[in-house]
Amino acid sequence: MGDEDRREHPRFPLILAVQYLGAESVLDYTENLSATGLFIRTEREFRVAERVALVISFPQLLEPVEIEVEVVRLRAASDDAPAGVAVRVPDDRPEHRARLQDVARVVAGQRAPDDAVRVLVVEDNALVAAMYASALRRLAESEPAVPIAIETAADGGQAFDRMLRAPRIDVLVTDIYMPVSGITLLEQIRAEPTLASTPVVVISSGGDAVREKTAALGAAAFLRKPVNYQELAGAVRALITSAAGRIAAAPGGEPQREPLTPDAAEGKDDSEDRPAFRR
User: Fold this and answer.
1) Crossing angle, helix 229-249 and helix 126-142, to 10 degrees?
2) Which tens digits make up the pLDDT trace of 58-97?
3) Is residue 271 part of a domain?
4) Which three-class secondary structure state does DSSP give residue 73?
5) Number of domains in the chain
6) Domain check: are 145 and 102 in the same one?
7) What is this structure's pTM?
């Protein structure tokens, strides 16, 4: 995708499941998408200009959509990012481009209005990130009075870049062990005055040393993997309610940040207590 295409068709960071016609056992995930193309994280080998038939989907958000795409760029795996390919819908497939535009509109619809509480999920395992995002959408459905927008990032570097841009992130949910770690991300946002008071929920397989380190960096909650839906919802619910109050009270809808409090994420509803996700 060229620079002009990127300017004309903004990209949305979103994880969607990707399957390939003729190789349905292979499951990859998108990194972002626009009205004309996608970036797919994949270990599969492709050639530039190769055409591929895809099916993209997301539980509770998007029914499976079949499109044909053309590979325009390859990305080799590195310490900073996994391997992947940038693809676009060819100009001679207008009906497929229309399908992708419909998907982009669905995604844009999930990007709630200015008074929404924006939650950023940071997790390098695409499947786990998709599960967390699905759980938070479920929470949003149960809290209709508080509009919630959910975004995802693949590591601390992507997350920090996103947090420096508008609209601002109100609640951060982050893993620790990633190419750019959650610890590094916490250190960066605490050192940045405009982000320093962002409430953070940490989800990690780390032990007490990691818990103590994140607590020292102001994390409101520490959840040990594997987490269940109720643990995640309970940790995030109080934070989004507080953030919604700040947004509503601020002039022009711009939230005024308040310092974190140690008990910001307390409170638990035991109505659902079943395992949801594993690393």
Assistant:
1) 60
2) 765 678 899 999 999 999 998 878 899 999 999 999 999 9
3) no
4) strand
5) 2
6) no
7) 0.63
